[in-house]
Amino acid sequence: MDKYSIDYAELHTDMTRPKFFKYAEVKDRLVRVAYDVVKFQDATEDIDGLWQIQSTDDGEVIVAMYEPPEGGGEAIKSESSWAVLPDKAASSMNVFYKGEPVHKIASAQVGVPQAELSDFCTSVANKLSENEDFRRSLLEDIPANERIALFSKHPELTE
Q1: Local structure of 147: helix, strand or coil
Q2: Which residue, among 21, 44, 41, 22, has the nearest Cα to 33 in the 3D structure?
Q3: Distance (Å, whole) CA 31 – CA 28
Q4: What is the side-by-side strand order in the sheet with 100-106?
Q5: Alpha carbon distance 76, 96 (integer Å)
Q6: Which of 48, 84, 88, 111 is the most exposed place for a label (fewest CB within 10 A)?
Q7: pTM for this one?
Q8: Phi and psi (nearest 5°) for 150?
Q9: How does pLDDT run along the chain (159 residues), one tens digit per residue?
């Protein structure tokens, strides 16, 4: 396939896939992965990937999370164990260590405009892999019981 051609079938599938559901309507079909991150337990629909529980004015909803960037100059370095990805609503950043959700940070908390959140996430991921003080600061932000569970699973983070 030519790199400039468009696969309209795939594009249509991506555009028509729901980006959020009301939590109350689908909670019996969800499996909790970590904290406020869930996934669907059945694969009958073409809904894959991780979802995040968020509160809105209309009640709780689950929002599809972005997948990591593939290739290209702006992609997160493959040798890094850290990844930081915005959710689809661009209201928060999700921090992952070795592919597992570790922490969630509201974009309003760091004062980053939604339009710049993706670039900011890439910078944070790079800084987490390179700067020990920054990494320690993030780990101290995690609630104690979650931090203990993370350290027991990944003891290299305590060093």
Answers
A1: helix
A2: 41
A3: 8
A4: 82-86, 92-97, 100-106
A5: 12
A6: 111
A7: 0.51
A8: -65, -45
A9: 555 566 666 655 555 555 677 888 888 888 877 667 777 777 555 556 677 788 777 788 887 775 544 444 444 444 578 998 888 777 788 899 988 888 888 877 888 777 778 888 888 888 888 888 888 888 888 888 888 888 998 888 886
Amino acid present at 3: K
Q: Are 68 and 76 in contact (CB under 8 A)?
A: yes
Instruction: Give the CA dihedral 81, 85, 91, 92, nearest 10 degrees.
Output: 0
**Cβ neighbours of 48 (radius 10 Å):** 11
Q: Cβ contacts of residue 5 below 8 Å, gap of 6+?
A: none
Please give the Cα distance from 80 to 137 (Å, whole number): 18
